Amino acid sequence: MRTVFWEDNQLKMIDQRILPSRFEIVSFKDHKSVARAIKDMVVRGAPAIGAAAAFGLALAAYESVATSSRELLEDLQTASNTLKAARPTAVNLVWALDRAMGATKTKEERSADELRQLILDEAQCIADEDVEINKRMAEHGAALINDGDTVIHHCNTGALATVDWGTALGVIRTAHEQGKRIHVLVDETRPRLQGARLTAWELDQYGIPYEIISDNMSGYFLKAGKAQKVLFGADRVAANGDVANKIGTYMLSLAAYDNGVPAYSVVPTSTVDLSLEHGGLIPIEERDPEEVLGIQFHGERVAPIEAEARNIAFDITPHRLITGIVTENGVVYPPFEVNLRKAVLRK
Amino acid sequence: MRTVFWEDNQLKMIDQRILPSRFEIVSFKDHKSVARAIKDMVVRGAPAIGAAAAFGLALAAYESVATSSRELLEDLQTASNTLKAARPTAVNLVWALDRAMGATKTKEERSADELRQLILDEAQCIADEDVEINKRMAEHGAALINDGDTVIHHCNTGALATVDWGTALGVIRTAHEQGKRIHVLVDETRPRLQGARLTAWELDQYGIPYEIISDNMSGYFLKAGKAQKVLFGADRVAANGDVANKIGTYMLSLAAYDNGVPAYSVVPTSTVDLSLEHGGLIPIEERDPEEVLGIQFHGERVAPIEAEARNIAFDITPHRLITGIVTENGVVYPPFEVNLRKAVLRK
Predict the structure, then answer these.
(1) Using a CB-CB distance cutoff of 8 angstroms, which residues of chain A are in contact with residue B200?
(2) B301 bridge partner residues
């Protein structure tokens, strides 16, 4: 089953807020609910957000009562802006929407209804391609994993973060299917706990052995020589190889680097933003402090009721800490400034 | 009010497991319950554990039905071993028990009852000295803090981690009382959340402004130039300046170092273990995985029910990442191998 799919003229998605307690599919009939679902993290993970947004644009096309293609395109532009504003960091959101909008730029004049179909077809194409691209990435990445490796993995980058299969977790999955014995140390990934909730749930499905650790423990395992690889995805990669990814990736990569353990970011080339020279230019989302404050232990709220908090959702890992960037076009090594551009433009 | 104190022939302690939801004092009449309370973290923080254990030994002295001093010393030795076994990493536990036992080694022969009183007096002396030592440390440390500093603080090192006043948090408290404007970024400190629960609660009492962050966010603030100092305590410091402290200290120190932000460990000299050449020789406690797995979000358990976890309680921060070690005898700078010994032996 896919995380994001089109069925009965609706966008359907696995509700990732309630896993692993409950598995539910939610349906969407209008683009504004899709934007809200992206913001609320019903769906998360850069590639999954991209596909969801493209289908959201298709919903907007059918919502619009426009009869002329000009009117429809105006409505689509508004809808695209709404969807783009849902979350700022993952570039796949912008990429997928621009690509879906681009499908309407045809040589011949098209009717409004023809454009509606074009948008939906493009969204479906983005979704289908995502799965195929993930499997190619996973093949390239799996070649880096040795039999017996313990891999530290941050956040969730599996089937749930994509349309299907996954990026970094897809690499682990493919290596596992190749018969390599892998043990995963799953960063719980505060504050939203995508590791403890979603990655653990996925690894259970695939029968891959794992142990959950709190994020601040990965340094211990790296220093003790108990982890051979560090893998994560990315929400946006700058032209120089700086990686914006889930908060904690910078500290994890730093600990990997300090102990000579290779750290790989696994991303489709749609996550690479060649328009940004370096990571400092990537917008970083700050979310509701309640995500930090609201956890309970022994049934009681942890923080004092009047406490304040900060909730930075992403950080930038400087490219000097990244061993390689695994894309569907192969593994990219330094100098990233040169090699990343080549990988992105190779089709 | 002290965190650990003797009253009505009992050891009384603030129950730190239930703060900040409830404030309760628990009483102990026998040394085995004290050992259990240390293990269960009713009391935690290296100096507080030391004082609690010394009072625990006093309880053991009064529990013993021995009439001869020889029999009593045998009972005390057994009790000391039980207390020492409660937690392995903090050296103050061993230090305080050895010091209390040392008080029985007098020139003249003493009766069993005289020895009982000597042990209790020594425990009281350890507790009183702890407060005085903390205030001296705090004075030395406060000189390092500038008006307007944002300080990242890990775990809890305040009045609750000591008999009173605190080590690293004591420094912040003294700087605040000196009129310096300080903002504290409080690492929540997974898995037991001593930062979000205890440090936040203490800062509320003192009126010092703070924001809670998840541990993996500190790298972001350091890289963004939004924190000027990093402060933490220690559970044991090796002769070369390697610091065993709450899990996450290594990654935090690494991020401070990577961004040129000074990181200080604030410890009484009783936390320095000159018998261990380097940090690799310090025993590291691993605790119940349920401390990692058992948190809830929106009232639901976070991790899959069958998930496994690791729960490493401490890590070693290599001395190369430590700017200075603040003790009651002044701030110690590299080379720690030479200067730490001097500071410890200076009385």
Answers:
(1) 303-304, 307
(2) B296
The whole-number pLDDT of residue A67 equals 96
pLDDT score for B346: 86
Q: How far apart are CA A313 and CA A299, in angstroms?
A: 26
- From the candidates B130, B164, B235, B315, give the one annotated as an active-site residue: B235
Q: Which residues of chain B have pLDDT under 50?
A: none
Instruction: Provide block-wise average pLDDT over 10 residues at a time, chain A (347 residues).
Output: 97 96 97 98 97 98 97 98 96 97 92 97 98 98 98 98 98 98 98 97 98 98 98 98 98 98 98 98 97 90 94 98 98 98 90
d(CA A132, CA B219): 35
pLDDT at A299: 83
List the one residue out of A181, A185, A279 whose CA is nearest residue A230: A185
* CB-side neighbour CA atoms (13 Å) of B347: 2
Parallel, antiparallel or unpaired: strands A300-301 and A183-187: unpaired
What's the pTM?
A: 0.97
Which residues in chain B have their CB less than 8 angstroms from residue A200's CB?
303-304, 307
B128 as an active site residue: the answer is no
**CA–CA separation, B291 and B59 (whole Å):** 30
Catalytic residue among A164, A187, A215, A235: A235
DSSP annotation of A330: E
Q: Which residue in chain B is spatially nearest to A189 when comparing CA positions?
A: B216
pLDDT computed for residue B298 by the predictor: 80
User: B306: Cβ–Cβ under 8 A, 6 or more apart, which residues?
Assistant: A204
Mutate which: A42, A217, A253, A259, vs B, most B CBs within 10 A: A217
Residue A300, token pair as written in the block: 């009681």
Residues of A in contact with B193 (CB under 8 A): 295, 297, 302
What average pLDDT does the structure give for chain B? 97
3-class DSSP string for chain B: CCCEEEECCEEEEECCCCCCCCCCEEEECCHHHHHHHHHCCCCCCHHHHHHHHHHHHHHHHHHCCCCCHHHHHHHHHHHHHHHHCCCCCCHHHHHHHHHHHHCCCCCCCCCHHHHHHHHHHHHHHHHHHHHHHHHHHHHHHHCCCCCCCEEEECCCCCHHHCCCCCCHHHHHHHHHHCCCCCEEEEECCCCCCHHHHHHHHHHHHHCCCEEEECHHHHHHHHHCCCCCEEEECCCEEECCCCEEEECCHHHHHHHHHHCCCCEEEECCHHHEECCCCCHHHCCCCECCCHHHHCCEECCEECCCCCCCECCECEEEECHHHCCEEEECCEEECCCHHHHHHHHHHCC
Across chain A, which distance is largest between two alpha carbons, in Å?
Answer: 66
Q: Do A293 and B20 touch (CB under 8 A)?
A: no
For residue A236, list its beta bridge partners: A244
Does B258 sit within 8 Å of A255, measured CB to CB? no
Q: Give backbone dihedrals phi and psi of A151, rounded to 5 degrees, phi first.
A: -115, 130
Q: Can you say whether residue B189 is alpha, beta or left, with left for phi > 0 and alpha for psi between -120 and 50 degrees? A: left
> What pLDDT is attached to residue A347?
63
Predicted-complex ipTM score: 0.96
Side chain identity, residue B261: V
